[in-house]
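Q&A log
Question type: sequence-to-structure
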Amino acid sequence: PQKGGDLEAALLFTSGSSGEPKGVPLTHRNILGNVIQMVEFGIFSSGDSALGCLPLFHSFGYTVTLWLPLIGGYKVVTVPSPLDITRNIEAIQAEQISLLLGSPTFLRPYLKRAKGDCIPSVRFVIAGAEKTPEGFGEQWEKHFGSFYLEGYGLTETTPVVGVNLPTLPSKRFEEWNRRGSIGRLLPGQDVRIVDPDTGKDLGFNEQGLLYLKGVNIFNGYLNNQAATDEVLSDGWFNTGDLARLDKDGFLYVDGRLSRFSKIGGEKVPHGTVEEAVMHALGLSHADSDVALIAVASRRDQAKGEALVLLSTIDIDMHQLRENLAKQGIANLWIPRILKRVEKIPTMASGKLDLKQLQALAQD
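Response status: OK
Response body:
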């Protein structure tokens, strides 16, 4: 339509990883705004071609592989599924694809099934939808020789908030990617880092709740005013993620607030413990297409919460604790409870199903 503005253009749904999925109406302004932000930021160059394999019911696929190419004038080659690695490689080779998009879960099978020289046209990979596991980016670059660039977004942010870039689109900054960060924020966004306990704004390099404001922020959930009021206030969107912003503008997203436990008064990040456990067990994220372990928590009368290690493989807990201690992992961070499960619950995008994880940990 000639006049879209704040009218609904699309209805997408959150993944429901931490609760029931919620409807997210995205407006014409949201989508056009996020596309312009990406064009201004220089994510694609005019000669790039992208592989469009992400589902369109997910905001990553919807905005970045549908509207960005159509409006920005970039080439996109579509294939049915991010899981059909053989067909995707054939498309990359036939069409000389230069840009690959996906989540670490969707990208992991390439490391197992593709030779390092089979997709030479791919210049860089942009990964989002879930946090990149430690060491995965380096592993990708060593195997394929292409840049691995992490970004960040949410359904409610249309979705792209920030991303690392492979090269300098301008001379405004000397550096455009930092490992471990999600890059710099796209233009036209305001950011606040807020202490989750006191509500006070924090400074650079201090970890707190990430709040965002901008043209790409949605206007509220579908028929759910209570949920809307929880996350939106005066135009500020509470992402629910803990993050840090450095003085050069690089944003580090440490994970969902719900993926931290308060144990003996100390904040313990489940994701960091998972990485330490993988390392202690001598496991790599490329060893399996599915998650092998996950950390959740249950209530504990003595320390408030207790970590629960959910595992699909047999683990010698005594040996694991010794290995973690040798790594220098604090005693409070070492899981004491092991629960053997058939599989680690995940969403279709590869994200951990936090609601199911907690249910398993409580059981």
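Response note: The longest strand covers residues 236-245.
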